[in-house]
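Work package 3, deliverable 3.1, input record:
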Amino acid sequence: MNVMENVRTDSSPQVMRTPRSLNIELTARCNLRCTYCYFFDNPEVDYRDLPTEDWQQFFEECGSLGIMNLTLAGGEPFMRRDLRRLLDGIVRNRMRFSILTNGGLVDDDIATFIASTGRCDYVQVSVDGASPETHDVCRGKGSFERAVAGIQNLQRHGVPVTVRMTIHRHNVDDLENGARFLLEELGLPGFSTNAAGYLGSCRYNANSVMLTLEQRQKAMQTLLELNDRYNDRISADAGPLAEARMWRQMEEARTQASPPMANRGHLTGCGCHWSNIAIRADGAIVTCTMLAHMVLGWINQDSLEEIWLRSPDLAQMRQRHLIPLTNFDSCQGCAYIGYCTGNCPGLAYTLSGQVHYPSPDACLRRFLVEGGTIPRLHAPIHAQTSRTREEVPV
Amino acid sequence: MKSTEIPIANPVAVLREEFDDWAVLFNPDTAEAVGINPIGVVVWKQMDGRQNLDQIVAAVRERFADVPEQAGKEVSVFVDDLARRGFVGFEIEAATL
């Protein structure tokens, strides 16, 4: 089936002249080898770093284009010995930055420096639980203590810190302790969650880290309840909490026979390419770090502005929201089709080999057919509800 | 020191022209962003530290048709608002010996 058939003919949003923000993988090196890492073990990526000067030259281009924010990731950004010079370059070119890190290399000196720039929106540290037992099992011995020390160094200097908790088989039974530790003991204003997804290294460790259906359901239920208890201090753009919210909304629409929702029923699961673009550690300009194979050009060789406005691949990504889910065999006859977004193109690509395709991983109908149930907010934590296959709406 | 009535754009602030002639003014030091319309963009570009408000309003009249009578007041309010938010400063009068 040609997925570009039956595309909507209404006008697309206008493309802004330059991206507002960039996701930059500053380095392909990391001090850890987490078993579910999305970054490593991607056969389509060349894992090499660029010299300081190349990044500095690129930051000048970014500044001249009025880009506002750079999110620095890796690998592990603090592996870069020239990180201070790079941050200086970002500041000099009138931009702000955020850093995604495992926290293990954030010492007092670098925390002081980051605070001194006055340009850091946040540092996001990965913490998977309340103890080494739930964190180190996937991230390596000693990584929990070092991550917590990193957070405390940042907090001491007033740098905004947030945490990303990746939910996997070894922490799913300890989410309450994880939330208590992060929100009460560390005093974070909030934290975000996702789940180990079938990308990068995780593909080789899926059976030992990815949530089973029962665990996924338990994670959804627990996170909904915890978020309620902690007054919406737990967030998610993907993973069990995001799915729980989305699927409850979709189920409610189905039971009420609501008309199709605005911006649903098409591949609308991602709108990043309207405001954001990504750069790999080797300088490749890509649509998204989760679509690292889609190389649009190279920094300092190609004009970022030209790529942003005229790349055919990017233009096609921006047309993705016009592709109806009815184009896909896997969506035929689904009762949720008018309420569904098709979800993440990155996961769709790893699981199906196609970018312009709905992600099977976040398919509500599939989840229900396999025996899952949609969580209820006020069910007791860890309550398991049952549902027969006959009840599954398809 | 006494300030003049000559506004000058904060050199740290970034003008992002996004759609048509609309733009976002962004102050990376404070993370504050303000959306401005095409007239605001013209005003911003005139705040080079050499023109007073009357001259800036004249530039607006030159650029746009049917500019209303009260445009001067509106430009003044706009510039004052940007000054309050740290996007604009005013030239300091040179000291007289």
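Chain B touches chain A through 15 residues (CB under 8 Å).
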